[in-house]
Amino acid sequence: MKQSAFQLFSAKVAFFFALVFIFFIPIGTAPMNVALFLTLVFLILSGNIKNHILTAWRNPISKVSLLLFLFFAIGTTWSIANIEESIDILKKYNELWYVALLIPLFTSDKRKKIGINVFLIVMTGILLTIYLLENNLITPIETIDIGRDHPIFTVDGGFSSHILTNILMSFTVFIFAQRSILSKGLMKISYVILACYSGYYSIFISTGTTGQILTITLTSFFFMQHFRWKSVFIIPLFWALIISYGMSNTNTSFGTILLKLQDAIEDTKGSGSQRLDFYTNSARIIYHNPWYGSGTGSFKQEYRALSEHYIKTHYTDNPHNEYFSTTVQLGYPGFLLLMLLFYMQWNRSFKIENIEYRYLAQGLVVLIVIGSFGNSMIMDSGEGHFWAFFSALLFANSSNKQLGKTSTSSYHM
Fold first, then answer.
1. Residue 93 phi, psi (nearest 5)
2. pTM for this one?
3. Which of 336, 362, 340 is CA-nearest to residue 349?
4. pLDDT tens digits along 170-192
């Protein structure tokens, strides 16, 4: 059916708000959610919602994401939590159907490039502001919000938390590194510089341990992608340089990784031992109800029902581990469906023709798989929205075959 001018305009506006959505993920939750809502509204107004749904359902990544969300929705029926708590947690997994919402918007390589560039623009702006603050070239950005007594922007956390900002920065480093190889001319030099500065921030300035680990892991994976067997020699050298510099320069944040590891081993009640406590107790909960879990939203109640004998640090409503979070709620079937989703992403990544998008898709899988050991990556708002956006962008079937076969090209921010 032929679309009217208004419907065509609405389709373009929907794509615009999808870009606004990714722009605000590292900045603020409220504008991010508003942009996503407007994306949905204009998709409906475009009059093409039926084809949109069919496109999403035919994509294996969005299909498995929808099935996992449906499982969480059904999980509310046997949850030991009250219905309000179950629905509140179910909403935290909306990212799973957001993948299906966004996938049909990125079916051309041109749109994929625009989406990635918008993300890089906002992250580059945050990185530049961080270095200006770090070197006292600008004054701290104070808040004008009533009741808030801390700056709205910090060196460690940007506009958000140090955890989210550094996880996003780890993928930013990875994109810059890819483009430093794949681009040509002066842009190559620009991306090399940006990769170095963003990498230094992530590993040696930010205290977001998950982001530090992800940056080191993704950089090592980058070497494997481009240098194949030579990476056997490059990666140990890279790790040796990181460790030697981090140990010799005590003014960096690299030592936080070692301190948290030491904390977990020595059980000093710090961040490391807290995570170990959460994981151990989550495993206890799963042991008693492995086959279908305690239902969506049940983690908080299950954890509070544990004997005080097992609580070495404090009670929590988040295990900071996506695998434990899903399995406590949905049992082994939920865990297997989550692993199927990650496997499908990994498997499909090798079928992406454009080399940049193929490598980025593989990096995204590495990020979500590794990051989910230390954070509830899908349930957590910023991390989950980030994963949903890039899952949609990178795994959407491209209709631009000519661009899809291009292995190298010039990129512009």
1. -100, 15
2. 0.92
3. 362
4. 999 999 999 999 998 889 999 99
* 256: Cα within 13 Å, side-chain hemisphere: 19
Q: Alpha-carbon distance 302 to 65, whole Å? A: 26
> Which pLDDT score, from 0 to 100, does residue 407 have?
41
As a whole number of angstroms, the distance between CA 394 and CA 301 comes to 37
pLDDT tier, 263 (very low <50, low <70, confident <90, very high otherwise): low
User: Burial of 249 by CB count in 10 Å (0-12 exposed, 13-18 middle, 19+ buried)?
Assistant: exposed
The residue type of 393 is: L
Residues comprising the chain, all counted: 413
Q: How many CB atoms lie within 10 A of CB 112?
A: 23
Q: And the tokens for 120?
A: 């890089």
CA 289 to CA 140: how far, in whole Å?
Answer: 50
Question: Is residue 372 pLDDT above 80, yes or no?
Answer: yes
CA of residue 285 relative to chain centroid, distance:
27
Rounded distance between C-alpha atoms, residue 118 and residue 403, angstroms: 19
Q: What is the mean pLDDT of residues 130-150?
A: 72
Sequence-distant (≥ 6) Cβ neighbours of residue 169 within 8 angstroms: 123, 127, 198, 201, 202, 206, 211, 215
C-alpha to C-alpha distance for 202 and 367, rounded to whole angstroms: 14
The pLDDT of residue 143: 55
Q: What is d(CA 286, CA 281) in angstroms, rounded to the nearest whole number?
A: 9
| 3-state secondary structure labels for all residues of 238-295 | HHHHHHHHHHHCCCCCCHHHHHHHHHHHHCCCCHHHHHHHHHHHHHHHHHHCCCCCCC
Please indicate whether residue 314 or residue 150 has the higher confidence score (pLDDT).
314
Q: What is the pLDDT of residue 270?
A: 61
CA neighbor of 139 nearest in space, from 152, 148, 127: 152
Q: What share of the chain is helix, strand, coil (3-state, %, to 5)?
A: 70, 0, 25
**Is the distance from CB of 289 to CB of 331 less than 8 angstroms?**
yes
